[in-house]
C-alpha cells in the first residue's frame, strides 16, 4: 500500500528488534520454572484434559498459528489472569480461541488500515529495560480516526505485531502515552477506548506490563473516570505517571492511590537510545507512514 507522507525522513529507523543487552536471560525450564507443585498440577490438567476439549469445541477454520495460543506460556498467562482458577481459565481460553477464529487477527486486510497507520496516533518503537516492546500512543490525534472499528482493528494489529517482536522470555508490552496537547475534543472517543481495553483485557491477558502516562493533564482525569470502572486492580497498579521536564502535569493531575504513582523520569523504565526525542530520549526516529509501514509488515 502507499501512504501519504507529510514530511521527509529526517533520520533513524523504527526499532522492532530488541538489542542483545535488553534480551532477558531465560531460566531453565521456562515458563514452568517459578511454579509450585499445585500450580504445575493445575497446568497439567489444563494442558492434558481441557485443552483437547477446547480445540474440539471450536468452530470455523483454524488459524495458521493457532498452536501458538495453546502452548505452556499462554496457558500460564491465562491461569495467572484468573488467579489459578482452572474453570475460569478454561472458559476464558475457549472464548479467546473462538474469537481468534472469528476475528482472525493474524489475517486482517492491511489495506483497510492505510488511513489509521498514516495518522500516527499509535506506533511501535523500541524496548524498555525489561525487553518489552513499547507501544507509543498520542491521544491528541485520536479524533482523526473517522471509523472507530477500524481504529480498534489497527490497535489490535499492533498488539499482534508487538507479540512477534518480543524476545524469548518476554510476554508483555509497555504502553507509553503522551498526553501533550490532548483534550476532550481531539482525543479518542470514549467508546473506542472502552472497546479496545475490553478486548485487550479479555483476549490478551497478562500482556500489559506497564502503562506510562507522560505529561498527564486534566484530560487524563476524564479518561480515567471513563475507563477506570473497566480496569481490575492489577491493571490500575500498572499505571504510572511522569510529568516530563517540568512539573506542570503533576500539578494538574493527582494520581489515584490505586495506581503505581509518580516517577521522575522515563529513563527509570527505558534507556535513552530506545526513547524518541519527543520523550527526552536519544532516538532520532521521525514517524513517516510509508517507511514505517514497509518495516512493520515484515515483523
From TrEMBL:
SUPFAM superfamilies: CRAL/TRIO domain, CRAL/TRIO N-terminal domain. CDD domains: SEC14. InterPro entries: CRAL-TRIO_dom, CRAL-TRIO_dom_sf, CRAL/TRIO_N_dom_sf, PI_Transfer_CRAL-TRIO. GO terms for molecular function: phosphatidylinositol transfer activity. Pfam families: CRAL_TRIO. Residues 112-287 form the CRAL-TRIO domain. This is CRAL-TRIO domain-containing protein. It comes from Chytriomyces confervae.
Amino acid at each position: 500500500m502507499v501512504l501519504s507522507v507529510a514530511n521527509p525522513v529526517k533520520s533513524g529507523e523504527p526499532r522492532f528488534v530488541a538489542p542483545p543487552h535488553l534480551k532477558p536471560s531465560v531460566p531453565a525450564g521456562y515458563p514452568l520454572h517459578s511454579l509450585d507443585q499445585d500450580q504445575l498440577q493445575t497446568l497439567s490438567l489444563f494442558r492434558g484434559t481441557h485443552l483437547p476439549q477446547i480445540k474440539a469445541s471450536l468452530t470455523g477454520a483454524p488459524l495458521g498459528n493457532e498452536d501458538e495460543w495453546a502452548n505452556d506460556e499462554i496457558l500460564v498467562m491465562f491461569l495467572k489472569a484468573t488467579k489459578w482458577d482452572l474453570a475460569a481459565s478454561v472458559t476464558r481460553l475457549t472464548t479467546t480461541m473462538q474469537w481468534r477464529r472469528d476475528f482472525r487477527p493474524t489475517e486482517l486486510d492491511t489495506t483497510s488500515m492505510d488511513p489509521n497507520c498514516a495518522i500516527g496516533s499509535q506506533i511501535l518503537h523500541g524496548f524498555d529495560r525489561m525487553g518489552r516492546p513499547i507501544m507509543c500512543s498520542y491521544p491528541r490525534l485520536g479524533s482523526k480516526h473517522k471509523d472507530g472499528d477500524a481504529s480498534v482493528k489497527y490497535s489490535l494489529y499492533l498488539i499482534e505485531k508487538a507479540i512477534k517482536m518480543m524476545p524469548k522470555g518476554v510476554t508483555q508490552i509497555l504502553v507509553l502515552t503522551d498526553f501533550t496537547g490532548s483534550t476532550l475534543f481531539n482525543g479518542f472517543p470514549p467508546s473506542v477506548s472502552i472497546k479496545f481495553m475490553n478486548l485487550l483485557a479479555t483476549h490478551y491477558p497478562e500482556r500489559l506490563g506497564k502503562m506510562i502516562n507522560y505529561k498527564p493533564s486534566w484530560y487524563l482525569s476524564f479518561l480515567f473516570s471513563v475507563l477506570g470502572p473497566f480496569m481490575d486492580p492489577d491493571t490500575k497498579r500498572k499505571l504510572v505517571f511522569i510529568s516530563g521536564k517540568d512539573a506542570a502535569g503533576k500539578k494538574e493531575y493527582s494520581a489515584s492511590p490505586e495506581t503505581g504513582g509518580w516517577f521522575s523520569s522515563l529513563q527509570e523504565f527505558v534507556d535513552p537510545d530506545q526513547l524518541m526525542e519527543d520523550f527526552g530520549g536519544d532516538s532520532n526516529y521521525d514517524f513517516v507512514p510509508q517507511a514505517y509501514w514497509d518495516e512493520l509488515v515484515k515483523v
